[in-house]
Write a structure and sequence with these properties.
- It is a single chain.
- The chain is an alpha+beta fold.
- It has a single domain, classed as Hotdog Thioesterase (Thiol Ester Dehydrase, Chain A, Roll), CATH 3.10.129.
- Helices cover 24% and strands 39% of the residues.
- It contains four helices and five strands; from the N terminus they run E-H-H-H-H-E-E-E-E.
- A five-stranded antiparallel beta sheet has the order 1-3-4-5-2, with helices on one face.
- A hairpin with a 7-residue loop joins strand 3 and strand 4.
- The longest helix has 15 residues.
Length: 146
């Protein structure tokens, strides 16, 4: 288990990847974000996107799942206080492979408690090396109890 003290600013990790299929994109969107350019290939072809694209929240959900499986399960994570940034840089299309990575941007030790600290953490998804989604969150991580 990694505690706040074990995590270094600047630490970068690639966690894994996932290729999105058209069926998966449409299924997610029908349930959670049923805009026509996410659920209807014909309507999507007439949109500014020129074809079907994944919901940005689908991209976030995939990134989050991989991050939890490959990183947060081994961190004394106590949740997050907020997202300070969420950006979708490019659309994600059927057949795109999302590569999920993260970087510790900063650490803060609060004065009011010695039980935990805060990590500014950037999680990103890339397709062919280009960012398609980035989010920066403020993780609350338990400090080591000696």
């Amino acid at each position: 288990m990694q505690y706040f003290e074990d995590i270094e600013i600047g630490a970068e990790t690639t966690f894994g990847e996932r290729t999105l299929t058209e069926d998966e994109i449409v299924s997610f969107a029908r349930k959670w974000d049923p805009q026509r350019f996410h659920v209807d290939p014909e309507a999507a072809s007439e949109s500014v996107h020129g074809g079907l694209i994944a919901s940005g929240f689908h991209t976030v959900a995939v990134a989050m799942r991989i991050w939890v499986n490959e990183y947060l399960r081994d961190v004394a994570n106590m949740g997050a206080r907020y997202l300070s940034e969420l950006a979708w840089h490019e659309p994600v299309r059927p057949g795109d492979t999302l590569v999920i990575s993260g970087e510790v941007l900063d650490k803060t030790t609060p004065e009011h408690t010695d039980s935990h600290g805060y990590l500014d953490y950037e999680l990103s998804a890339r397709v062919d090396g280009e960012p398609v989604m980035t989010m920066v969150t403020d993780l609350v991580v338990q400090r080591r109890r000696d």
